[in-house]
Amino acid sequence: MKKRLIGTLLGFLAMFGFGAIYYGLLTAEAGAEMAANFASCMHAEPNMPYIILANVMGAYLLVYTFDKMGVNDAKAGAYQGAMIMAIVFAMSNLFMGAQFTIWDTQGLLIEWGVGIVHGLLGGAVIGAYNSKIG
Prior knowledge:
Layout: H1 2-26, H2 28-37, H3 48-69, H4 74-99, H5 105-133
Helix pairs in contact: 1-3, 1-5, 3-5, 4-5
């Protein structure tokens, strides 16, 4: 239980940290413009509790699957994390693309890539942690 909690926390920090840099710094202006253009269906500011919970759930998904798969090093964690999140984000983004007109193919592909990086970084951290605790 302790291993899963600490692994989830570390994975969360990596994934949330990357998201803060990407969404909070690098693309904040574009995000604000998009929110203004689509005010009827987007929050002006992201709902932070949902973002936190999403990152916790993503990190726990990696911790849980890595435990079942025996992923115990950073390299394998990065690869498997990227693969798992590639599938998760592809599914999610395809549903969004099917239902919401604010998403075009380019936006969906960019978000898919961002999701893969989330998995790569979170997976690497969790895999590295797993290698330290055996």
